[in-house]
Amino acid sequence: AQPFTYYARMAEINAYMERLSREYPDIVTLVTAGQTFEGRSINYVKISTTNFEDRNKPIYFIDAAMHSREWSTPPVALYTVHRLVEDLRNEDRDLVQDVDWIILPVQNPDGYEFTHTDERMWRKNRSLKASVSNCSGVDLNRNYDIFFGESNASQDPCAESFSGRYPFSEIETQNVRDILHAYLDRIQIYMNIHSYGSYVLYGFDNATLPANVARIHQVGASIGAQIDTKKLPEAYHYHVGNSYFVLYPASGTSQDYAQDIGVPFSLTLELPDFQNYGFLVPPKYIPQINEETWMGIATAARLSVLFY
Ligand code: 0X9
Ligand code: ZN
């Protein structure tokens, strides 16, 4: 079975990306961005029908599993790769002709493996500074250099939302930062995929909004509306808006960081959880989430090309 049809382990996810880069060498480039605290590779793929480094197309950058217990998110990232590469349909050719893609299915491999082997509800990475605390892990979505430590973030290493001791203290966030800066001139969309709650979120967590908020809202609302046409009756409708108001304030997030450095459309997606499954979405829902979210991602890609 393909590793986006079930909750796969890191080895299976990496093997899938390796296989695609071998079978489609002209289109898929596998990049190992760095080694985690526990020595795992952080892998992403670049997808381009031309030469990715020709730098003439807008880029859509997607990452998932920043929070390790959010298991429904890597399948969405991998299914997106699948639909762009292995199962590209005629009506979707524009998506690779007009856009280059960077897809990082697991931002937090150490945490992700830990949720499979030890503690299903683990959220943070697994780094440990033994001279400071016995508690492991930094909340990667509090570790970016934007409003660092201001709200909904803890300075306590034992807390679920520990921000880290300073911005970008973690290899995982350094990697995403470096990708953003390496391609900043043409990253049109940064989409940070989480679960759960059915939200498209944007803007800054001091309750301010970017100058292009009307267009951001247009892209976000189009994603939500598109997904809603495909959603199951037991799923909530998507809510679209500024993260501060629609969800809660949170500082040091990658969404705010990417928006602040100039990515035109920086979005957080919170996938659906159906009734009250929370993070524990039954595997039977994986294909549904993949398909409906893919539709939203494709819609955003097309709009972002118009706005490029
Ligand atoms: O708290 C978070 O990091 C995200 N929610 S989650 O339940 N997946 O942990 C929300 C982040 C929303 N983005 C901003 N507030 N900027
Ligand atoms: Zn999350």
From TrEMBL:
What keywords were assigned to this record? Carboxypeptidase, Disulfide bond, Hydrolase, Metal-binding, Metalloprotease, Protease, Signal, Zinc
- Catalytic residues per the record? 270
- Looking at the UniProt record for this protein, which Gene Ontology cellular component terms does it annotate, in alphabetical order? extracellular space
Per its Swiss-Prot or TrEMBL entry, what cofactor is needed? Answer: Zn(2+)
Gene Ontology MF, one? zinc ion binding
Entry's transmembrane regions: none
Q: Which GO terms describe its biological process?
A: proteolysis
According to the entry, every stretch annotated as the Peptidase M14 domain falls at 6-304
Family listed: Belongs to the peptidase M14 family.
Q: What is this protein called?
A: Peptidase M14 domain-containing protein
